[in-house]
């Protein structure tokens, strides 16, 4: 039976198949389980109706659905019939090992719990507090007959709960119900159950003992239900007495005896129906607020139960969704693992094939070398044999000559033999051929140690570790930034990708990174550095570096880098005729002798307006420059619109903002209004920070790293740096990076300056007149 049951078990829910579908791959699946698989693939952008395929959980075969979805698949009617017969056979043996598990409901148990609670309370709620006036027996008897409707409601609720289950589940939950009046053994199967009498009858006993006549006409007959479903809860203190009241003092179910003679006789009680209605749907009427307060504590338990049930149902739904996602991930893991295993086998087979081919090539080379060397050795052996034969013949002839006793014959042959022996000895190289030891093939070696080491290091490739941007190595100009980075997996990285965008002050880098529209991408970088051109001057940028290989990619931590300020020089066309500019246009000096300069609209020309402007107009970014003041004690330095008047002091109009010194007094001036500020008399290097994007113009004592003043200005037009002097000379340094002390200005100074600028708009702290230096 256990083997058969395993064959009839769904691979998803691990229960007997319920409404099985026959898949095209010949496997089966519960309809609800198939539906859950489709639900697990759903998302906000991919509704359930758009899913047209899923994988068989057994063989991974892709099941394609038509426009009808799961309804388009065939039902496995044969399998369902087998399961039905198997269930009947199992139910006939109550002690079967699988019976207890099979009797449990297949549906989500929260509905069963809530239905059982509702059925228990509703089915016993027909007795009011006044039913306790008679004797216990009378009360029990009258309760049994007078409240048949409530028992019928309970039976209906039970039937309704059972109706929510499929026939297969009902068969597991409700085995065969026998008649309780039959005297034969075994009793016949019941056809009706009387909720009022709490007895189940077969057809014969029903006609005989429970006719459709008075007093039975008011009884409620229902389809057969188990005896435990129609009997109410019994009292804990009085055996065989059913609970029919609710004690409001102790929050406890009680019977009639508890109210008459028990410890609850002085307590306030309520009928089960009334209490059930209050706990199930509690509402406060406008005229009974005080009663509601009194009842609040007593309803807390039921409300907690209702809330817990709601939370449990919600949690079950979340768990089902989570389980569906986990199942989907498991399926994806299976698919990916199978894919990688197949790829591993393929790659290893290719390596084995390469080794096999190389083995054949090297074996052929060895055989060819063997044949060539043996051929050469055979030739040498033949030469040696020929020389040996000649030498042996000569030796024999010489020995015979030496044995000759006839003087005449010896003299006749000896000379010829002696010459031949001398020639043979002299040509020893001919007689004894050279032997090449390399022909022995003993200097040939097969060394695959390097290849073996590589093969031992075979492993699957992973995405490289995130690279790290080296801020201390990065450099910048006014329109370029060179980014340097390092990587721990440099040899496994195929290429790098650099991404950058303007930094807007957003601290959530993940959200900033996800807004892909604003990012510039430089792909396929092979080095560990890259120079980005065409950037805005004085602007902060966010940089990411992505390390890429075949397995994937990983991003570095973000780095904030900034281009330098816009470099500029003094524009000779704007310089006052009593100012002398250096050849590099970085220094201006007051010269009382009037220089010959043509008059142009952009030239400073007013009496006392000894000024010059920079040769750049700034309309974005954050820019910093410094002015070396030297011994000058009378100057005005700031910015102005192009439309600012050139025949008056800078700051005297609404189009210019300056920091000025007049002997020992320091002040800021705008729109003809001045305000004294504190600064050191030893001020020799003035820093100017123009943050056009954030609408501010600040002045600093660059040598002492001190903040002097900040203008809060909503710039409407491009501005140009302006410089005025009335004695000595000044020198400008432009294109500088913003120093660290500027970013670290104390917040209280910034707030103080902002407050002062707020008062400036109200004209309260400013002098209405303009101080004049003589």
From TrEMBL:
Could you tell me the keywords of this UniProt record?
Coiled coil, Cytoplasm, Cytoskeleton, Metal-binding, Microtubule, Repeat, Transferase, Ubl conjugation pathway, Zinc, Zinc-finger
Q: Where is the composition biased (Polar residues)?
A: 89-98
Q: Which GO terms describe its molecular function?
A: microtubule binding; transferase activity; zinc ion binding
* Pfam families tied to this protein: ANCHR-like_BBOX, COS, fn3, SPRY, zf-B_box, zf-RING_UBOX
Domain Fibronectin type-III, by residue range, is 463-566
Cellular localization per UniProt: Cytoplasm, Cytoskeleton
Which part of the chain is the RING-type domain?
10-60
Gly residues compositional bias, start-end: 120-132
One GO CC term on file: microtubule
Q: Which PROSITE patterns match?
A: B302_SPRY (PS50188), COS (PS51262), FN3 (PS50853), ZF_BBOX (PS50119), ZF_RING_1 (PS00518), ZF_RING_2 (PS50089)
Domain spans labelled B30.2/SPRY: 548-741
Q: Does the keyword Metal-binding apply?
A: yes
InterPro entries linked to this entry:
B30.2/SPRY, B30.2/SPRY_sf, Bbox_C, Butyrophylin_SPRY, ConA-like_dom_sf, COS_domain, E3_ligase_FN3/SPRY, FN3_dom
Q: Which residues form a coiled coil?
A: 302-336
Q: Which family does it belong to?
A: Belongs to the TRIM/RBCC family.
- Stated name of the protein: Midline 2
